[in-house]
Amino acid sequence: xxxxxxxxxxxxxxxxxxxxxxxxxxxxxxxxxxxxxxxxxxxxxxxxxxxxxxxxxxxxxxxxxxxxxxxxxxxxxxxxxxxxxxxxxxxxxxxxxxxxxxxxxxxxxxxxxxxxxxxxxxxxxxxxxxxxxxxxxxxxxxxxxxxxxxxxxxxxxxxxxxxxxxxxxxxxxxxxxxxxxxxxxxxxxxxxxxxxxxxxxxxxxxxxxxxxxxxxxxxxxxxxxxxxxxxxxxxxxxxxxxxxxxxxxxxxxxxxxx
Amino acid sequence: xxxxxxxxxxxxxxxxxxxxxxxxxxxxxxxxxxxxxxxxxxxxxxxxxxxxxxxxxxxxxxxxxxxxxxxxxxxxxxxxxxxxxxxxxxxxxxxxxxxxxxxxxxxxxxxxxxxxxxxxxxxxxxxxxxxxxxxxxxxxxxxxxxxxxxxxxxxxxxxxxxxxxxxxxxxxxxxxxxxxxxxxxxxxxxxxxxxxxxxxxxxxxxxxxxxxxxxxxxxxxxxxxxxxxxxxxxxxxxxxxxxxxxxxxxxxxxxxxxxxxxxxxxxxxxxxxxxxxx
Lengths: 258, 278
Description:
The structure holds 2 protein chains of 2 kinds.
Chain A: E1 19-30, E2 33-44, E3 48-53, H1 59-66, E4 74-79, E5 82-83, H2 89-96, E6 99-102, H3 114-125, H4 131-144, H5 160-172, E7 178-182, H6 190-207, E8 210-214, H7 218-224, E9 227-232, E10 235-240, H8 242-247, H9 251-257
Parallel strand pairs in A: 3-8, 3-9, 6-7, 7-8
Antiparallel strand pairs in A: 1-2, 1-4, 4-5, 9-10
Helix pairs in contact in A: 3-5, 4-5, 5-6, 6-7
Chain B: H1 4-53, H2 60-70, H3 75-99, H4 106-144, H5 147-153, H6 158-196, H7 201-210, H8 214-240, H9 247-277
């Protein structure tokens, strides 16, 4: 699987190129249950940040708060220099154009073919493209995820791994600056999981994206992580690189890595 | 101590019962609170849908698609239902009218009852079943599988794309379906009249339409717009606000049908009262 074409993202510049996301003292609860109590983290330009944690530790809630699919209760989220929490609807729409979100369930539109799924965000975000340019773009991203022949298929005709790739293609088609991956390898066999993990790395190199990867799959973390953050009880438990985590004597971390 | 024992027992029983009473009262209060919250949510949702309907960038292509899905794809069901209503109404009414020697009034009577009441209400109830449950299930499954979230993060307003288009399409297509059902009902009535009699097509229709006035037609047509809006809104609201689990899809579809049907009947009652005053 190779990545082809020229990215448009290279010309994009964040207000602060070194720090694309900064989260400070984020708190989010559901009723009396507090999921995130005090989370602070930073994502730097061009890096893959893996967020590890047990099921229910609030990993998915964290990235949903970044794009405000969930409203944070307290805290500050700065994305590309702008405060997400204070944004109005139109500002939020503009900010979301710069972020790609790969959902755990792939979230392909069932009633649309692969081609229509890819056209959907493109027609809304890049309104000035001609029909030929749209077709070229679709072919390019499908080639990038290795599924050029799936263009006319319906989502129901695709396997889990194929759905993930098409979903990735759908987010890449609008040239995002930041990628948020919610459990990208969940429910996939080890071989397909490895392929997706490699694809995440290729996307980072090719599209110069900065990524937050939510996972509890250590193999995926090993392949993709430049830096790792581990969540526990709604707080950041440990931060470091893969070597630091693997050499750790902490029994809790060891239970993840061994 | 012997005297005190029954007193302590009575106290225990009283405490136990008072706790039960408090629990029951709390449960009822929570239920009432949930009901009021649901009403407030529905009102906020309706406000948002109304605001988005009149805002810029109307999703015209999706609106046409929904008109096709709601209108064209419901035609077979409405055709069969319309013909059968007219047929059954005629077969059941004819003997009674015959006994009074008033069989000549049959076309007019059937036409009035079809246009005023039977056509709109039965068509709306069928649409509530087909369209309302379809919307509830479709949007509910989109919610469960994060498709609505995906739409939102790709800078598309899901209320505008999914809800406004469906509510408007239902509001426009249900009256058209009702008119179609009325026409087929009268056709079915003519067929029914010809089972035991011999009435020409032209004579039957001219007799039917000679009895129908403006007051029969217009209020009935106006209320069908409300029926359509209710079906579209309830279906979308139940689907859009469905929970995260797969069982929520079934619940959304089911409650959409039940609530839409109930509201259609209630609005019909109000419409009849208003028409009666005219």
